[in-house]
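ESCALATION

Customer reports they have been waiting on this structure for their group meeting. Please prioritize. Original submission:
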Amino acid sequence: MKRSIIPLLILVTLFLTGQALTGQTKAGDAFEKMKMLKGEWLGASSDGSPITVSYKVMSAGSALVETLEPPMGESSMVTVYHLDGDNLMMTHYCSAQNQPRMRAKPVSGDVEKIDFSFIDATNLAKPTDGHMHKLVVTFVDNAHFTQQWTFAQEGKEKPETFSFERKK
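Update from on-call: job pushed to the front of the queue and completed.
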């Protein structure tokens, strides 16, 4: 009986260790895919308004800083992406003057899309106050990607899609 339990325990341990590493690898893979956005991008919103975004890898590769420049007269916004253990996280410093934090859903297979969902926010008086609530980043190819931001307020959601092309 002892002999049959030991190999079984070894197999269970290897399986569980592999599962833990897979979770870390997938969040890490998603973060590495995000870091490939490093540089400058030109884009447009759903209504055709021009917008630019730039990405910088910072802090010895542990953070990706996104600076979104809307059309003239509107305030720039910053989003910082980073790993937190097995999770890809982001904090969005919004022109609504609050700072939503979101966590990416686990990614399986090749990283083609990263789906972030709201966790909490600083400087948000009530959960129904206006704030960014979701973000979906879709990688089209090495020179194109989209972002779909969803703004939530008073129980209603308003999505806005931005399409970007790498600046040449």
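Sent to customer with the following note: DSSP finds one helix and ten strands in the chain.
Escalation resolved.
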